Amino acid sequence: MSLPGGVERRQFDGGDEALSTRGEPAYGEPVVDGWRRWDARRSKLGATLELGLHTGLSAGDAVLYLGAANGTTVSHVADFAGPTYAVEFAPRPVRDLVEVAEARDNLVPLLKDARQPETYAHVVESGLDAIVQDVATRGQADVALANRKFLADDGRLVAAIKARSEDVTEAPEDVFERVLDQLREGYEVLATERMEPFHEDHLAVVATPK
Ligand SMILES: C[S@@+](CC[C@H](N)C(=O)[O-])C[C@H]1O[C@@H](n2cnc3c(N)ncnc32)[C@H](O)[C@@H]1O
């Protein structure tokens, strides 16, 4: 498995092994010797790493995280990454996200709509190493394409595509094919993997701008 620097497999109470990052606790997760348990069942990016996808993420990366919610996953990202811009459009989870960011100098919470990148283009630097996307909303490919301009030429999109957010009636495989075809308008798709057993009807995607 290729894990970014700063992400380690560690043993937690009960002897189970799990991904972890080192940092301030954020949501009541188990901590051993300063290492915070990163549960793949609670995190699409955690599942992507657990499944062994080569994400290209590295320690110190500049990251744009789309769909940060209350900060569960992005808190782990900020533990190993460099500047981490966290976009979330729902005011309620952003309150928790702001608290998570208080303990992390490199985490910038943004109460913004990821479909309107021009509203945060004055804050987010361009030439980013990675976009991590988990928006669980209709138009997931549109969101990735609209934010592509922030990525360096060799940057990475690491996205979780939720089939039911696109169409609850269509077969997930058909939804994934459609979303991937649309993504290929602006990205070369490097790897995909279904996220079961961690997340039902989700597809992990790693892509790079073309
Ligand atoms: C599945 S949750 C994200 C969970 C989070 N990534 C984690 O692992 O901690 C999806 C989030 O995306 C947010 N979202 C959906 N559409 C969005 C948009 N257009 N702009 C910003 N946030 C959006 C939702 O409000 C929700 O909080």
From TrEMBL:
<comment type="similarity">
    <text>Belongs to the methyltransferase superfamily. Fibrillarin family.</text>
</comment>
<feature type="binding site">
    <location>
        <begin position="88"/>
        <end position="89"/>
    </location>
    <ligand>
        <name>S-adenosyl-L-methionine</name>
    </ligand>
</feature>
<feature type="region of interest" description="Disordered">
    <location>
        <begin position="1"/>
        <end position="26"/>
    </location>
</feature>
<comment type="subunit">
    <text>Interacts with nop5. Component of box C/D small ribonucleoprotein (sRNP) particles that contain rpl7ae, FlpA and nop5, plus a guide RNA.</text>
</comment>
<dbReference type="InterPro" id="IPR020813">
    <property type="entry name" value="Fibrillarin_CS"/>
</dbReference>
<keyword id="KW-0489">Methyltransferase</keyword>
<dbReference type="GO" id="GO:0008033">
    <property type="term" value="P:tRNA processing"/>
</dbReference>
<keyword id="KW-0694">RNA-binding</keyword>
<dbReference type="GO" id="GO:0008649">
    <property type="term" value="F:rRNA methyltransferase activity"/>
</dbReference>
<dbReference type="InterPro" id="IPR029063">
    <property type="entry name" value="SAM-dependent_MTases_sf"/>
</dbReference>
<feature type="binding site">
    <location>
        <begin position="72"/>
        <end position="73"/>
    </location>
    <ligand>
        <name>S-adenosyl-L-methionine</name>
    </ligand>
</feature>
<keyword id="KW-0819">tRNA processing</keyword>
<dbReference type="GO" id="GO:0000494">
    <property type="term" value="P:box C/D sno(s)RNA 3'-end processing"/>
</dbReference>
<protein>
    <recommendedName>
        <fullName>Fibrillarin-like rRNA/tRNA 2'-O-methyltransferase</fullName>
        <ecNumber>2.1.1.-</ecNumber>
    </recommendedName>
</protein>
<feature type="binding site">
    <location>
        <begin position="134"/>
        <end position="137"/>
    </location>
    <ligand>
        <name>S-adenosyl-L-methionine</name>
    </ligand>
</feature>
<dbReference type="GO" id="GO:0003723">
    <property type="term" value="F:RNA binding"/>
</dbReference>
<dbReference type="InterPro" id="IPR000692">
    <property type="entry name" value="Fibrillarin"/>
</dbReference>
<feature type="binding site">
    <location>
        <begin position="113"/>
        <end position="114"/>
    </location>
    <ligand>
        <name>S-adenosyl-L-methionine</name>
    </ligand>
</feature>
<keyword id="KW-0808">Transferase</keyword>
<comment type="function">
    <text>Involved in pre-rRNA and tRNA processing. Utilizes the methyl donor S-adenosyl-L-methionine to catalyze the site-specific 2'-hydroxyl methylation of ribose moieties in rRNA and tRNA. Site specificity is provided by a guide RNA that base pairs with the substrate. Methylation occurs at a characteristic distance from the sequence involved in base pairing with the guide RNA.</text>
</comment>
<dbReference type="Pfam" id="PF01269">
    <property type="entry name" value="Fibrillarin"/>
</dbReference>
<keyword id="KW-0698">rRNA processing</keyword>
<dbReference type="GO" id="GO:1990259">
    <property type="term" value="F:histone H2AQ104 methyltransferase activity"/>
</dbReference>
